[in-house]
């Protein structure tokens, strides 16, 4: 009888495994939102450096930009920690706020004058009046409270939409939402620097005959504006750009949420005029920029990496 012999062999160790692991650890995992924000950091950093004579605190801003770029590169690692993955997904919201606030230092990097007169002329040609001045005839306690509440709700919209997508584990749509926001806001930042506008709060203040009177909501918004208002950066309206991105992203993925947010976004648009924050043309431009951001993010055929 023939004897069947089975020979067991162990696989030879290879040096490729540690190398592959090392490559995987060092390989970047950045997504398109990271790339957009890095692009803005490098571009604005170049502006700060080259136009430093016209940029207050340029040295501190340049160092901050370099540090923020390093933060993005560190976050864009294939981390296994859920906490770091979540931070990587959500950090753009904090960066958007910082970039907007620093506009007060960058807005005159190229142009020392304001271009409000051109926008005022467009509003007057379209409506025959200054809309912010015309709207003061409707000023009452409750109108002010409700519209200022709507204006402040803008700050919650990205968290509401983002949290909804995150909880539903719609990560692809979440990434697209952040990408749309990044495209919209960076577009606003570019226009802020190229076409400085300070807004009707400054230019038409001498025409306003009625003070906005309200209660605690109005007081809270005025306090935020007193310490967070950016002199410049009115056109396009970043308020409207971000609100439209949130609205359209929600509408595409969670239609019921989009329907619920529609009156809120309409109220935000009205509040920007009533509160004397923007010209009508600012609002229209913000809608266009926000829509563009969503189109760019959702037209990608494959999922955002």
**In sequence order, what are the helices and strands, one letter per element?**
HHHHHHHHHHHHHHHH
Mean pLDDT: 87
Supply the CATH class: Mainly Alpha
The main β sheet shows up as: none
Query: Percentage of helical residues?
Result: 55-70%
Can you count the helices?
Answer: 16
Number of strands: 0
Unreliable spans are 1-27
Oligomeric description of these chains: single chain
* Ends apart, CA distance between termini: 61 Å
Query: The CATH topology, please?
Result: Vanadium-containing Chloroperoxidase, domain 1
List the topology elements.
Blueprint: H1 16-26, H2 32-50, H3 58-75, H4 82-90, H5 92-101, H6 103-106, H7 116-127, H8 131-134, H9 141-153, H10 157-167, H11 171-194, H12 200-203, H13 216-228, H14 238-253, H15 255-274, H16 280-298
Could you characterize the architecture of this molecule?
- The protein has 305 residues and is mainly alpha-helical.
- The chain has helices spanning 16-26, 32-50, 58-75, 82-90, 92-101, 103-106, 116-127, 131-134, 141-153, 157-167, 171-194, 200-203, 216-228, 238-253, 255-274, 280-298.
- The longest helix is centred in the middle third of the chain and has 24 residues, at 171-194.
Describe the structure concisely for a colleague:
The chain has 305 residues and is an all-alpha fold. It has helices at 16-26, 32-50, 58-75, 82-90, 92-101, 103-106, 116-127, 131-134, 141-153, 157-167, 171-194, 200-203, 216-228, 238-253, 255-274, 280-298.
């Amino acid at each position: 009888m023939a004897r069947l012999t089975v020979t067991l062999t162990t696989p030879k160790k290879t040096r490729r495994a540690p190398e592959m692991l090392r490559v995987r650890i060092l390989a970047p995992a950045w997504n398109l939102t990271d790339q957009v924000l890095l692009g803005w950091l490098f571009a604005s950093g170049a502006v700060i450096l080259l136009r430093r004579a016209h940029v207050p605190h340029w040295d501190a801003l340049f160092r901050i930009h370099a540090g923020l770029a390093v933060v993005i590169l560190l976050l864009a690692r294939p981390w296994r920690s859920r906490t770091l993955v979540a931070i990587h997904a959500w950090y753009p919201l904090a960066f958007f706020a910082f970039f907007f606030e620093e506009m007060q230092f960058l807005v005159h990097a190229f142009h020392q004058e304001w271009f409000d007169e051109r926008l005022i002329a467009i509003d007057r040609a379209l409506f025959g009046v200054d809309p912010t001045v015309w709207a003061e005839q409707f000023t009452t306690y409750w109108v002010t409270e409700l519209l200022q509440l709507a204006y402040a709700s803008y700050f919650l919209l990205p968290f509401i939409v983002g949290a909804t997508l995150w909880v539903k584990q719609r990560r692809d749509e979440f990434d697209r939402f952040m990408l749309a926001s990044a495209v919209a806001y960076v577009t606003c930042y570019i226009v802020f620097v190229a076409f400085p506008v300070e807004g009707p709060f400054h230019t038409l203040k001498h025409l306003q005959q009625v003070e906005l009177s309200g209660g605690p909501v109005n007081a809270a918004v005025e306090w935020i504006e007193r310490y967070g208002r950016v002199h410049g950066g009115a056109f396009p309206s970043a308020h409207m750009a971000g609100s439209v991105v949130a609205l359209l992203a929600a509408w595409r993925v969670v239609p019921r949420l989009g329907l619920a947010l529609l009156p809120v976004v309409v109220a935000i648009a009205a509040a920007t005029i009533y509160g004397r924050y923007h010209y009508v043309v600012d609002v229209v431009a913000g809608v266009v920029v926000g829509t563009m951001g969503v189109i760019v993010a959702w037209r990608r055929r494959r999922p955002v990496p």
